[in-house]
Amino acid sequence: MNESEVLAERFEQNRGHLQGVAYRLLGSLSEAEDAVQEAWLRLSRSGADGVENLRAWLTTVVSRVCLDMLRTRQSRREEALEAPGSEATASAHPAMNPEQEAMLADSVGLATLVVLDRLNAAERVAFVLHDVFDVPFEEIARIAGRTPESVRQLASRARRRVHGVTSLPPRQIDHQRSLVEGFLAALRAGDAAKLVTLMTPEFAVQADATAAPRGLPQMQGAEAWAREAIRTAQGARLARVALVEGTVGLVVAPRGRLFRVLRFTFADGRIAGLEVIGDPKRLQNTEVAVPDR
């Protein structure tokens, strides 16, 4: 085996790790693969002479590539928001393998990807590298071109945004989570009777024009709504628990791209109402976070 083959084999041993780093930083499988391929090109050109820790060296290279890609994406979003009638998107790069990306997104956490996508480039890099992959702040500072203290502050700010802020006590959040998880499980199982037990008799639903373009059917009370919901609950498998504006709700985010937010209200220990948000501008301005376990 010659030197280039040895180098390629060593790179392949680290490919899974590098793809995991790049995917969490970019939220797109195809872009992550592009970043990993760029790392290989740089390694194949420079070689590994003088590199004591190849995994760390490659992580640094991939992170720098991803940071550049995130900055470019952020700049394009700002231009899109300034252009009349345009909407920013999570990624213009098509997925190379939708099924693989869906599985990867679910393993990372769809709510996590939604929140990460709302961080700026520096915050995302600082949080992912330090909190997920235990990269020291000193190394992240070299990647980002900042001081270790500023990177520490970026990670702290990102951490607060990822986990959200709520004024509710932990016991109340736990109870809400139990109700919403039960609600989602009943929808997926087609169990209307279970749904009714989780809702107040006066349960009511609202939806914006994007989420319900033809308007909501006129139904009164929990029982009528539960029967209709079971009939039209195909999308329930895509929903995941999240903090929505400080209370427990659901997000529907195929492959990490936010599509719908379900915001609940609670009363008398049960679910009293549901608001379905689909309007892109409202989605952008709705606070979403990852609930702590």
Please name the defining characteristics of this protein:
Nuclear Transport Factor 2, Chain: A, 6-stranded mixed beta sheet, 2 domains, alpha+beta, 6 strands, 13% strand, 293 residues
Description:
The protein has helices at 3-26, 29-46, 54-82, 98-108, 110-116, 121-132, 137-144, 148-163, 170-189, 192-198, 221-231, 280-285, and strands at 199-207, 239-244, 247-252, 260-267, 270-277, 288-289. It is an alpha+beta fold. It has 2 domains: 3-118, no CATH class; 170-289, Nuclear Transport Factor 2, Chain: A (Roll), CATH 3.10.450.50. It has a 6-stranded mixed β-sheet, sandwiched between helices. α1 runs antiparallel to α2 and α7 packs across α8. The longest helix has 29 residues, at 54-82. The radius of gyration is 22 Å and the shape is elongated. Residues 80-95 have low confidence and may be disordered.
| SSE topology string | HHHHHHHHHHEHEEEEHE
Number of domains: 2
Mean pLDDT across every amino acid position: 88
**In what order do the strands lie side by side in the largest sheet?**
1-5-4-3-2-6
Q: Total number of β-strand segments?
A: 6
CATH architecture of the largest domain: Roll
CATH topology of the largest domain: Nuclear Transport Factor 2, Chain: A
Q: How would you describe the oligomerization state of the chains in this entry?
A: single chain
Low-pLDDT segments, ≥5 res: 80-95
Helix residue percentage = 55-70%
Radius of gyration: 22 Å
Topology (elements, then pairings):
Elements: H1 3-26, H2 29-46, H3 54-82, H4 98-108, H5 110-116, H6 121-132, H7 137-144, H8 148-163, H9 170-189, H10 192-198, E1 199-207, H11 221-231, E2 239-244, E3 247-252, E4 260-267, E5 270-277, H12 280-285, E6 288-289
Parallel strand pairs: 1-5
Antiparallel strand pairs: 2-3, 2-6, 3-4, 4-5
Helix pairs in contact: 1-2, 1-3, 2-3, 3-6, 3-7, 6-7, 6-8, 7-8, 9-10, 10-11
